[in-house]
Design brief:
- Helices cover 27% and strands 25% of the residues.
- By secondary structure, the chain is α/β, with parallel strands linked by helices.
- The strands form 2 sheets. It has a 6-stranded mixed sheet with strand order 6-7-8-3-9-10, with helices on both faces. Strands 2-1-4-5 form a 4-stranded antiparallel sheet, with helices on one face.
- Strand 4 (59-64) and strand 5 form a beta hairpin.
- It is globular, with a radius of gyration of 17 Å.
- The N and C termini lie close together (11 Å).
Length: 227
């Protein structure tokens, strides 16, 4: 599992302008499902991308598992990320999309099938492995993206509006699936979403405004995170 901390984290895109993220200090608990909410431009996606290593902070520190990771690549942070856009390779089959991280990490090819079938089975897409992304529904594409993200059982999963391109019912289904999987793996899940159903699953909501934390809310219905 992975505890994430930010210490006075700031991101300024243009000198002399208000920062997209301003002195944000927060700490997750192990095994926590944490949701970032806020209007467009509030800084929630920039905050998530800095934690992921996709944006460099202007100042402040990011710690994962007690270790400062500011200078580490996304790969070296041992995280996985799911995007709104699915980010699938259109010319590759579902099987090859899921297996892509294994190839990138030089996992022996004779191990690929077992790992891909395991991840596909978790997401209920074992029958789709020979199809191309264009042959899938939006919900099926997002399941492929999640299977690819989970192929290494990451201790930290980040989601940037993973239900943003889905209808309400499918979006709720994906949130429920993420909730089940992250608890099964005892992983920490950080999610940026506008989906109103997120409050039905997450342990805590942090609302941002103008790049700062406006409020934090622990959900009464939430199951206790591991302490």
């Amino acid at each position: 599992m992975a505890v994430v901390e930010t210490r006075n984290l700031t991101k300024v895109f243009k000198e002399g302008h208000l920062g997209a993220v301003n002195n944000v200090t927060l700490e997750t608990r192990e095994g926590e499902f944490l949701v970032f909410l806020g209007p467009s431009g509030s800084g929630k996606t920039t905050l998530l991308r800095m934690i992921a290593g996709l944006e460099n902070p202007t100042s402040g520190e990011i710690l994962i598992g007690g270790k400062v990771v500011n200078n580490l690549s996304p790969r070296d942070r041992r995280i996985a990320m799911v995007f709104q856009s699915y980010a699938l390779y259109p010319h590759l089959s579902v099987y090859k999309n899921i297996a892509f991280p294994l190839k990138a990490q030089k996992v022996p090819k004779d191990q690929h099938q077992k790992k891909v079938e395991w991840a596909a089975g978790l997401l209920g897409i074992g029958a789709l492995l020979d199809r191309k992304p264009r042959e899938l529904s939006g919900g099926e594409r997002q399941r492929v993206a999640i299977a690819r993200a989970l192929i290494f059982r990451p201790p930290l999963l980040l989601g940037d509006e993973p239900t943003g391109n889905l209808d309400s019912a499918t979006g709720e289904e994906i949130l429920h699936l993420l909730d089940e999987l992250y608890r099964e793996f005892n992983s920490t899940l950080l999610l940026v979403t506008h989906n109103e159903h997120a409050a039905s699953f997450c342990d805590r909501i942090i609302t941002l405004l103008d790049g700062r934390i406006l409020k934090e809310e622990k959900l009464d219905h939430a199951r206790n995170a591991v302490s």
